[in-house]
């Protein structure tokens, strides 16, 4: 059994893992489900945004007025994505954040429109959340423009 050799060999193995792959993304165990399963779990509005990359109408999300301390989590799998301290009023009509919990969203580029904007989704369930633009406030200069229907708010315990 090679398991008995736990000294230097284990450390080298650990280092190799770290060098070869992004650690943050690896730390999250992916969830996958069929369309039928998601349809059971989500409302039609949530399904449209999270699984079909739909966009909600601006100024419709109750989360625009949510300013309590807490976390905005993925509506599908409840992975925390944005603490309240990252939220700001962008004036766009969609909940907006200038930063995200590290490793909790993944991105892919979207070339469907003339200007490039980057799609991002929950790192655990793959649910579409919104798009990130480079016109946000400091310190990041980023604007995560998120569909409110794709999020749930979990207030901190007082
Ligand atoms: Zn999720």
Can you offer a commentary on this structure?
The protein has 158 residues and is α+β, with helices and mostly antiparallel strands. The protein has one domain: Metal Binding Protein, Guanine Nucleotide Exchange Factor, Chain A, CATH 2.170.150. Helices cover 21% and strands 25% of the residues. It contains four helices and nine strands, in the order ααααβββββββββ. It has helices at residues 8-20, 23-26, 35-41, 44-52; strands at 70-74, 80-83, 87-88, 96-97, 105-110, 117-122, 128-133, 143-146, 151-155. A six-stranded antiparallel beta sheet has the order 3-4-8-7-6-5. The chain has a three-stranded antiparallel beta sheet with strand order 2-1-9, with no helix packed on it. The longest helix is centred in the first third of the chain and has 13 residues, at 8-20. 25% of the residues are buried. Bound molecules: zinc ion.
Shape: globular
Name the CATH homologous superfamily. Answer: Peptide methionine sulfoxide reductase
In round numbers, the mean pLDDT is 85
Low-confidence stretches: 1-25
Query: How many strand elements?
Result: 9
Order of helices and strands: HHHHEEEEEEEEE
- How far from one another are the termini? 51 Å
How can the largest sheet be summarized? 6 strands, antiparallel
Identify the CATH class. Mainly Beta
């Amino acid at each position: 059994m090679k398991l008995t050799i736990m000294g230097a060999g284990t450390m080298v193995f650990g280092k190799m893992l770290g060098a070869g792959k992004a650690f943050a993304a690896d730390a999250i165990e992916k969830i996958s489900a069929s369309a039928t399963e998601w349809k059971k779990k989500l409302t039609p509005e949530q399904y449209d945004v999270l699984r079909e990359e739909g966009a909600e109408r601006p100024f419709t999300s109750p989360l625009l007025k949510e300013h309590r301390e807490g976390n905005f989590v993925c509506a599908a799998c409840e992975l925390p994505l944005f603490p309240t301290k990252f939220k700001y009023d962008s004036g766009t009509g969609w909940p907006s954040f200038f930063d995200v919990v590290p490793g909790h969203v993944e991105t892919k580029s979207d070339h469907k429109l003339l200007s490039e904007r980057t799609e991002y989704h929950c790192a655990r369930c793959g649910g579409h959340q919104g798009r990130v633009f480079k016109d946000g406030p400091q310190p990041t200069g980023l604007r995560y423009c998120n569909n409110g229907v794709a999020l749930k708010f979990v207030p901190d315990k007082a």
